[in-house]
Amino acid sequence: xxxxxxxxxxxxxxxxxxxxxxxxxxxxxxxxxxxxxxxxxxxxxxxxxxxxxxxxxxxxxxxxxxxxxxxxxxxxxxxxxxxxxxxxxxxxxxxxxxxxxxxxxxxxxxxxxxxxxxxxxxxxxxxxxxxxxxxxxxxxxxxxxxxxxxxxxxxxxxxxxxxxxxxxxxxxxxxxxxxxxxxxxxx
Length: 187
What we know:
Elements: H1 2-19, H2 29-32, E1 78-80, H3 82-89, E2 94-102, E3 105-112, H4 121-134, E4 140-144, H5 147-161, H6 170-180, H7 182-185
Parallel strand pairs: 3-4
Antiparallel strand pairs: 1-2, 2-3
Keywords: Lipoprotein
GO biological process, one term: sporulation resulting in formation of a cellular spore
Protein name: YhcN/YlaJ family sporulation lipoprotein
């Protein structure tokens, strides 16, 4: 009987201890700021050595004391690939096209000559082949013939060409891409 009471007490203590564990109060700052650009060589022993001109007040330095943590983690590098779009438009099935490249992804919006059946696998493959032939650094090509997405991509392309800062519409672009290509983000 004493053994059963002792065993019940130990099990109750173990269960209550296990259920009481939370992460409240845990210092997770290091994990929360993972996308922050960290300064390197903060304790640089040669900082005050004039031979290396590493002083930030030195007139010919290329060092910049500004830390811009915009939250984009360099994902905001977008460019319009007009030469790729021209290759896509050269296909007999395609009337117009926009191509925006981010990192190693190409997002293509196209208007087909005869868009009664939507985007066939054959035309999608031809478009992807043209993109990858024009830019071998592209790993993934995402194609859409959605008219709304085509209009949005036209606006994004014009904004980039006109020098508008990408940070101003990058979140909107990402939201649009997530809506049109949800499988890309649900891997």
